[in-house]
Amino acid sequence: MTAEQLQSLIAAGLTCEHIEVTGDGRHWSAVIVSPAFEGKRRIQRHQAVYATLGNRMQTDEVHALSMQTLTPAEWAAQH
């Protein structure tokens, strides 16, 4: 799995305004900005991202994914 592939999987399943994925092929870090996160708690946001990956977390294709999940307003406030 490459960063580009992981980013494409997330983008295919979730409307995103910004996605950054970095990692070493097993351990990943992502910044994901989506209007779909509005009104959701952090666990719900993470579950939405995990849903885009299907069973790839269980099969160890994606071993670890740390996420920063932000709404567009939260992203704008940080930048």
Automatic annotation (TrEMBL):
SUPFAM superfamilies: BolA-like (SSF82657). Belongs to the BolA/IbaG family. It comes from Hydrogenophaga intermedia. This is Putative transcriptional regulator, BolA superfamily. Pfam families: BolA. InterPro entries: BolA, BolA-like_sf, BolA/IbaG_stress_morph_reg.
